[in-house]
Specification:
Low-confidence stretches of chain A: none
Order of helices and strands of chain A: EHEHEHEEHEEHEHEHEHEHHH
CATH topology of the largest domain in chain B: Rossmann fold
CATH superfamily of the largest domain in chain A: P-loop containing nucleotide triphosphate hydrolases
Oligomer: heterodimer
Helix content of chain B: 25-40%
Helix content of chain A: 25-40%
Order of helices and strands of chain B: EHEHEEHEEHEEEHEHEHEHEHH
Radius of gyration of chain A: 22 Å
Number of strands of chain A: 11
Distance between the termini of chain A: 12 Å
Structural class of chain B: alpha/beta
Largest interface: A-B, 57 and 61 residues
Shape of chain B: elongated
Mean pLDDT of chain A: 94
CATH class of the largest domain in chain B: Alpha Beta
Strand order of the largest sheet of chain B: 3-8-9-2-10-1-11-12-13
Number of helices of chain B: 10
Largest sheet of chain A: 9 strands, mixed
Radius of gyration of chain B: 22 Å
Strand content of chain A: 25-35%
Number of helices of chain A: 11
Strand order of the largest sheet of chain A: 3-6-7-2-8-1-9-10-11
Distance between the termini of chain B: 19 Å
Number of strands of chain B: 13
Largest sheet of chain B: 9 strands, mixed
Strand content of chain B: 15-25%
CATH superfamily of the largest domain in chain B: P-loop containing nucleotide triphosphate hydrolases
CATH architecture of the largest domain in chain A: 3-Layer(aba) Sandwich
Shape of chain A: elongated
CATH architecture of the largest domain in chain B: 3-Layer(aba) Sandwich
Amino acid sequence: MNIAILSGKGGTGKTLLAVNLAAIAGDAVYIDCDVEEPNGHLFFKPKSIKTETVAVKIPAVDDELCTGCRICVDFCRFNALAYIADRLAVFEQICHSCGGCTLLCPEAALREEDRIVGRIEEGFSGSVKVYSGILNTGEASGIPIIKRLLNLSKKERPGLCLIDCPPGSACIVMETIRDADYCVLVAEPTLFGVHNLNLVYELVSLFDKPFGVVLNKCLEGEENPSEKFCLEKVITILGHLAFDHELGVINSKALVAARERKRYSALFSTLLASVLKEAQHEAVVNP
Amino acid sequence: MKQLLILSGKGGTGKTTVAGAFISLAGARAYADCDVDAPNLHLIMKRWSEPERKDYFGLPKAEIDHKRCTRCDLCRQNCRFNAISLNDHYQVDLFACEGCGVCEVICPEEAITLQPAVAGELMLYREEDSVFSTAQLRMGSGTTGLLVTEVKKQLCEAVGEAELAVIDGSPGIGCPVIASLNGADLVLIVTEPSVSGISDMERIIQTAEIFNMQITVCINKYDTNLENTALIETYCAEKNLPFSGKIPFDPEAVRAINSGKTIIDLDCPSGTAVKEVYHRTMELLFNERCSIST
């Protein structure tokens, strides 16, 4: 079963939740799809790592064959090609690898070459299998890495996979939740938090994904705009995590709280049970 | 006009909180929210007028004319984004389609055309003393970088004369962040003293350095882990990056935000500390020859 953990806003506790749920489940797979800023590996410190590079296809020109007809330049909607000073120039970073230029070149002057944009690391932390996607700095799109990551981890099915998503609600998040069986939305009790919760709520609704919300950093006696939102929209609340100084400190040191203290292992066990119960219920009701 | 861009790498470190405070302190006449994926700045920047709204068109999407389609399958075979599938007839997955146009040129029957598609909305708040440019990307849309460029373009066109523009950026290091770097005079990185925050800060600094940006760093919630705060300060000193200050963890900051205010509007520890960060940042931005009113 694939469970995606997401939130519109950054810093609400996606990684905290995904890492601790995977650690509690024990025999689970953790997949870090926040390839721009992957942090799960900092917590898990996985061992016996296997690394695989991820490449995209980009066009390479044979200057001898290019006649300067500019069919490729006119075709490219991403403006990744230009004919400058009697030479075809390729702007690799903005190429979307659609292959159109190579397909259209009447002189067969273009061929495709691999360009490395990042890597995937696969290792173990105890019995948890840890996958991390890491985008090279300066690269614009992490989507090829996420696609490869989710493809690679298909072999882990039907085991329990916890997918740590990037923040936001754009294409990169959509790519991540495509194969998810259930989504967990993490929200914090602020005006920013509820505004961004609404965005991911719309996203999971649009993709018809079953989902529930975990309310993080709850302050006793204080108003919780995110909780109010869930009650109004009749959204399943999977659990509350109280604002907790000690948990914050453990987390800031990149330690797995559920492995450090009994009370956090109990806390995340309860939460995992609640998530699994909902996810399995949904799988039966809406297979 | 000098452009100050606020980034963090990691989300939730306080970019928007700091941006809101800076805008108030400077009485900025120009500001923008480039986090088009999850914009929040408008929530604490009280505006009385309705914004001017404009549809944002991203890249077009393929449309198949079923009457012309002879099911030759060439479009499906050549689509690199797996956006075309065959069920009862050929269908385009509009979320997967990147609008490259390969299907359109490969179709021997001219059954495929590319249609303009709205991918978001641009908003411009124009008031007597200031302009605020922001946008909201549509769910699951791509071309975030292009929309960021439009937000900045809209700001520059509307503003006329202004000394300073404050730009709230997005988390991460990818296309929206790279697009927001264009034209910025200084990047203020708001980090937090956690192992994750530090790792993400290093990656955003690397990214900004690739594009030859001027960088300064401040630490938010610095007292939540003093060891890590010391590590960040050492890191900045070793890399010769100007350090612009520390803001303490402050429950009042959450109260300010939840009532739609900036931390400057309340008398609170984070509000006092952010003023120091503001002054050092402005000194760097205006090369110590500026005349900023406080």
